[in-house]
Structure to design on (700 residues):
C-alpha cells in the first residue's frame, strides 16, 4: 500500500463528513443528470432511446493487490471496466454509481485517492457520478460500480447478431494486461523475499499501464458512429479472446474461424512474456483484462474496417456446424477454441 | 448459518454453471426490460419521464449476521432496501442488478437461497433482475444491489421541497426493526454460551419480521397516485427518524417540530423493548432499518392524509430559525433532535 502522511482512520470519519469529503469535487458533465449525489436516488432524464445498465465488483485479493496497485489507478480501473461493458453494446455511458466497503486498515486519505481516480475516469469519459454508498467491511476493500448509458434504439448491439460470413474484428491489441500482471506478481514475490530490492520495470511501461490503468474503447464506438457502422454483434474482452469468441458464437448460434497470425499483440507484450516462457497467442486467447472490443460486421464493410486505425480483422463467422476454431500460424492446422479464461468460473458477469 | 445437505463448494462451481443455476428462474415483469441477463449490459426502454437509480451494499458482519439471518430473507432484504430508496422519490422501481462476492465458506446452495429471496422480492414488487456479477471474496459475503425506477417528470419528490406549515408524516410504525435486532443479538449471545439452548421468540414475530424481512412502502406511493397527492419532500427512514428529519430540514432549508406522542410505535415493539429497558421513543428516533417513508404535504391536504390508513401526521415544518425540535409527551418541553443513527457515520449512502 501507498505510504500516507498522518492517515485518518475511518473510525474518525464522523468528524470529517466522509461523503462530503469524497464527493465535493464532483462535476456534472451531462444535461441528462437531473439529480446527482445527495438524495435517495439519482434522477436521470431519458427522452428517447434505451438505457443501458452494467455492474461490476472489484474485490481486494481477488481482482487487485494493494501492494502494487496505486489507489488512484484502482478507482480509475473500477470505472473503466464498467464503461467498457456499456461501449460493448454500442452505447455511451453517462452516469455511474459507486459503492465502497472498506476495513479500518483503509484511511480516509486512501479513500480520497480512490475517488480521485474515479473522478479522473469520470472526467475523461464525461460520465457523472450520481450516487453510491460507503460502508465498513470486516476485512478488505470492495468497490462495486454500476454504469448507466444510452443508445439509439436501432443501434444497440448484442452478442447475438453475428451472421455467417461476417468479419470478426478486435480493437487494439491483446495479452498486455496479463503480461503486466505477471511482472507485478514477480516483483511482489521478489519484494516479499527482500524488501530492499527495487522493482525493475524498465521498458515495461506499456504492459504495466494496460494492467493497472486500462482504458475503455470509446474511440471505436465514436468511429462506428462517424462511419455509420452498426456491428452485427459485439462483446468486450475482459476474460480472454477465446472465451469471448465462444460467448459470441453461442449467443449468435454460429461457428467461428480465426487466424492465429491475425491476432494483434504488441511487440512489448511479446518481449515481456519471453521472461516467463509464455506463448503470446496463448496469453492473447486466455489472458484477461484487455477491455478491447470484439465485434462482427458484414463482409461488405471489409474496406472500411481494413483502413480503420486500431481495428484488426482476425477471422470470419461460419455455419454453426463448422465449430469454433483457430487456424495456427505456420502449420495451418485447425485447433478448437477453449474456454479457459484467466479467472475462475466463479467470476462471472451476467 | 443454515444447515445444508451436501453443500457444493463454490470452487466446484465451474462444473455447475453457477450463473445459469442462479438466474434460470428469472421472470421478466416489465415491458421496459428489453435485454435482461446475458449480455454486456441490460437494455431498458424509457420513452418518457425520468429514470431513478439507487445503490446499496450489505456486508456480512456489518449489516447482517449469518448466524441468525436466513439466506432467503437476506436476499429479499437486499432488494427491498434499494426499492425503498426509489419509492422515496415517489417513483416506481422496475429493474435491479445484483453483485455478490462470496468466500468459499458459502456454498452454491447458499447462493441459490439468497437468489430465491431476491426473486421473491422481484415477484412481489414486480421488478426485473437484469444483470449482475458473482465473484469470490477472501472472507465474508457482500451483496450490492442497484435499483432502477421510473417516475413522471413532474412527480419526482426530492428531500428539498418542504415548506413552512407543511405537515410532517410517516408511514407505518417505527422502532420495530431495531427491537428485532436486539432480540436476535441477545439470543445469539445465549446460543454462543450454550449451543443447546433454543431461542425463545414467542410473541415476537412482528419485530423479528421487521428486522429480517422488511418491506418497502409501495402502497403509500400507490395511494399518492390514486389520490393525486405529490408530497413536497420525502425520504425513507433507514437510519432513524431523527437523522432523516435533520436531512430533510437541511435539504429543504426549514425548521421542524414534531410531537413525541404522535410517533407511531407498535405495541409489540414497546413490549419487546421493555426487556432491554429501552425507551420506545429513543429507539424510534435513533433505531434504524424501518424503511418507512417520511414525507411532507401542504396543510391543505390535512383531511385526506388524516383518513389514510398507515399514515400518521407527527408534526409540521417551521421556519429554519426555529430549529429542529420534538415536543415531549407529558412535560411538553422542546428537545433538540440529534443525529445519532444506529449505524456509524461510516455507513452513508449518497
Amino acid at each position: 500500500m501507498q505510504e500516507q502522511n498522518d492517515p485518518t482512520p475511518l473510525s474518525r470519519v464522523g468528524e470529517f463528513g466522509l461523503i462530503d469529503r469524497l464527493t465535493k469535487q464532483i462535476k456534472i458533465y451531462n444535461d441528462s443528470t437531473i439529480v446527482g449525489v445527495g438524495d435517495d436516488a439519482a434522477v436521470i432524464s431519458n427522452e428517447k432511446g434505451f438505457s443501458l445498465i452494467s455492474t461490476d465488483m472489484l474485490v481486494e485479493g481477488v481482482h487487485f493487490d494493494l501492494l502494487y496497485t496505486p489507489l488512484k489507478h484502482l478507482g480509475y480501473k473500477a470505472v473503466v471496466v464498467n464503461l467498457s461493458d456499456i461501449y460493448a453494446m454500442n452505447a455511451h455511458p453517462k452516469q455511474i454509481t459507486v459503492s465502497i466497503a472498506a476495513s479500518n486498515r483503509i484511511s480516509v486519505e486512501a479513500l480520497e485517492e480512490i475517488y480521485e481516480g474515479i473522478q479522473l475516469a469520470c472526467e475523461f469519459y464525461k460520465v457523472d457520478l450520481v450516487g453510491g454508498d460507503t460502508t465498513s467491511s470486516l476485512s478488505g476493500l470492495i468497490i462495486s460500480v454500476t454504469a448507466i448509458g444510452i443508445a439509439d434504439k436501432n443501434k444497440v448491439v448484442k452478442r447475438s447478431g453475428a451472421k455467417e460470413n461476417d468479419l470478426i474484428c478486435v480493437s487494439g491489441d491483446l495479452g498486455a494486461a496479463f503480461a503486466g500482471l505477471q511482472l507485478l506478481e514477480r516483483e511482489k514475490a521478489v519484494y516479499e523475499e527482500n524488501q530492499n530490492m527495487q522493482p525493475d520495470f524498465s521498458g515495461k511501461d506499456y504492459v504495466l499501464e494496460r494492467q493497472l490503468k486500462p482504458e475503455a474503447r470509446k474511440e471505436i464506438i465514436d468511429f462506428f458512429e462517424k462511419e455509420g457502422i452498426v456491428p452485427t454483434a459485439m462483446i468486450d474482452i475482459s476474460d480472454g479472446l477465446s472465451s469471448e469468441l465462444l460467448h459470441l458464437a453461442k449467443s449468435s448460434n454460429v461457428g467461428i474461424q480465426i487466424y492465429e497470425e491475425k491476432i494483434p499483440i504488441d511487440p512489448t507484450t511479446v518481449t515481456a512474456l519471453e521472461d516467463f516462457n509464455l506463448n503470446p497467442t496463448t496469453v492473447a486467447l486466455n489472458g484477461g483484462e484487455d477491455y478491447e472490443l470484439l465485434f462482427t460486421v458484414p463482409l461488405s464493410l471489409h474496406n472500411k474496417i481494413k483502413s480503420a486505425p486500431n481495428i484488426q480483422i482476425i477471422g470470419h463467422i461460419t455455419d454453426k456446424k463448422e465449430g469454433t476454431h483457430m487456424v495456427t500460424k505456420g502449420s495451418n492446422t485447425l485447433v478448437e477454441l477453449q474456454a479457459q479464461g484467466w479467472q475462475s468460473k466463479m467470476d462471472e458477469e451476467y
Chain B touches chain A through 79 residues (CB under 8 Å). The two ends of chain B are 31 Å apart (CA to CA). The longest helix of chain B spans residues 108-125. The longest strand of chain B covers residues 92-102.
